[in-house]
User: Fold Bifunctional NAD(P)H-hydrate repair enzyme from Rhizobium rhizoryzae.
Amino acid sequence: MLRDETILFTTEEAAAADADSVGRGIEIAALMERAGYAVAASALRHFPEARKIAVLCGPGNNGGDGYVAAKVLASHGCNVAVFSWGRSSVEGAARDARERCPLPIEPISAYAPERDDLVIDALFGAGLTRPLPEPVQTLIEAVKLADASVLAVDLPTGICGNQGRMRGAAFDADVTVTFEARKPGHLLMPGRAFCGTVEVASIGMPRRIVEQHARSVSVNNPKAWQIEYPLIEANTHKYRRGHLAVFSGGRSHTGAARLAAAAGLHAGAGLVTVGVPPDALDVAAASLTAVMVRSVSSRLDVEQWLSEAKIHACVIGPGFGVGETIRDYIEVLAAKPCVIDADAITSFSSNPGQLFATFKNIGSPYILTPHEGEFARLFPDLARNDSLGKIERARLAAARSGAVVIDKGPDTVIAAPDGRCLINENAPPWLATAGSGDVLAGIAGAHLAQGMPAYEAAAAAVWLHAQAAQHAKRGMTAEDLVTAIPSALESLNPL
Assistant:
């Protein structure tokens, strides 16, 4: 059976799955034995040139996996040395694994890393919730200075499994071997940067147990939203595919809205119209062809437009300008599904509750697309709370605002007010370029205009946006990103 790569385990869920497996007759020692064999196999496969393998074992089950791996590697003729932390506190299956390890066991203070070493980090794994002890931090620095290779068991020591945060220091792994499913810390920054290549090994846990417990957060990919993705049927026409309205700033600030509009058209909206101030009509009209333009200069103009035209969704914020005008527009636009982006977010920084109440009172779905700074403007208390990871803060923001929140970054998190949550992982680093966020807003708007629910619309937009960047390749501009959307859409076949 193929493994479902969208599944993620929080550390609590992984522990619950272990306990459930034991309750159904699978001994924890058997799981540990298989985990240790998987680690040893990975070490032999990836690091055949290692002159010495130093296995660093902690006091918990992670350390138990290390003791098993050390025994297996020694049986294959490898030069293996075992070092422990907290030896006196080892209990249960990990203690039994240590006692079955035939090699001498020294304290980690006795290990002096060398360049040709392979370090198997089986110290603390994913469950770490406190800063690392100073001797462990010192050892991590020594391993880095020696430039030794590192294979991490479950997660590099020093990285929080749920939040991806670094607890004082962390091993910089070349390879990480985890079991049954990845953890959020494998995807969230900065943890992702410390994991190297992540391998997921099956250790005999029944698939039904994995799927039963891995429920709180998943990887964003088409499986999460494809059932809601709009199909282009043989008898469709442009009006059935939705009319998207994008609102632009003044004469010298139309570029962002034009990017969003073009992205919306490429992403499937049947019609896209850009609402622009009268002084910008000629600029917009001269640079847009398939996208229509309309003069809009007041709240009354917006009300009249929405009463005359069948608008299915709106995007407001890219290049619009901060101030009272955009707040007035949004009071009207809240009657439609909306993407609230950029300047629209900043315009409510002094009173975020006004934005939230506007949509809650009317009941229309909406998507917020903040980057880190914009998130802090709408949710300053959440941004300041160092105990919250990106998943927790996105969920709390979605619940408070009633919006689907796209908390942007290299590890974008999509959260719904009902607690559903996805982590995106397909974005290449060159997606960080001027205008990229405007393109994302346009794609999300197109999905809303085509009738997708807000959560699925946002998740699909984030994935498609990143997929387009992969097709556009290094050196791309936001304009290149727009024109790469059709190629990215081909990845959705046979949708």
